Amino acid sequence: MQQTTTKKLAMAGVLTALAVVGSMISFPVAGSQCAPVQHMVNILAAVTLGPWWGVGIAFAASLLRNLLGIGSLMAFPGSMIGAFCCGMVYAKCKKLSLTCMAEALGTGILGGMAAYPVAEFLMGVGPAGLFVYVVPFLISTVAGSILAFVLISVLIKGGIINQLKAA
């Protein structure tokens, strides 16, 4: 049991690092930084580790990005809600396409709406409305979900995903 937990923790560390470094590949859309690699990592975590590990990875990556000055507080609701949604969907149905859709809807719609109070009350930005972050979050998460779908499909065909799950 301890060996399994240690391996999962190591994998979570690698995915967190990938999300942080991958956030350097980002682009601004409507006051939000779109970082598609985070969404790809959310789906990789859902498939290899499960929903709670994914939420933890999303939190750790968001925290590190903020501490390093390369992220915003809006990263927390977007990435964590998306990680939870896609993790739960994968845990229930094991279908990659539905998992990617859950990431896009969880981050894009729910995370976008959850970013409003963060921007309003924690950042003092005063966004124009509840749905103002939905479009930029959707752009980011759809790009990341497509990346994840392609990458994981290749990893499944090569047998790598099964090795990662077994590790």
Q: Overview of this structure, please?
A:
With 167 residues, this protein is mainly α. 77% of the residues lie in helices and 4% in strands. The chain contains seven helices and two strands. It has helices at 2-22, 36-48, 51-67, 75-93, 96-122, 134-157, 160-166, and strands at 27-29, 32-34. Strands 1-2 form a two-stranded antiparallel ribbon. Helix 2 (36-48) packs antiparallel against helix 3 (51-67), helix 4 (75-93) runs antiparallel to helix 5 (96-122) and helix 5 (96-122) packs antiparallel against helix 6. The longest helix is centred in the middle third of the chain and has 27 residues, at 96-122. The chain is globular and about 45 Å long.
Q: Could you provide a short overview of the structure?
A:
With 167 residues, the chain is mainly α. 77% of the residues lie in helices and 4% in strands.
Largest sheet: 2 strands, antiparallel
Globally, the shape reads: globular
Number of strands: 2
- Stretches with pLDDT under 50, minimum 5 residues: none
Q: Portion of residues in helices?
A: over 70%
The number of distinct helices, counting runs of at least 4 residues, comes to 7
Mean pLDDT across the residues is 90
> Order of strands in the sheet with the most strands?
1-2
> Assembly type of the shown chains?
single chain
Q: What structural category do the secondary elements indicate? A: mainly alpha
Following the backbone from N to C, one meets helices and strands in this order, namely HEEHHHHHH
Sheet-strand content, in percent, reads under 5%
Q: What's the end-to-end separation, in Å?
A: 12 Å
What is the alpha-carbon Rg in Å? Answer: 15 Å
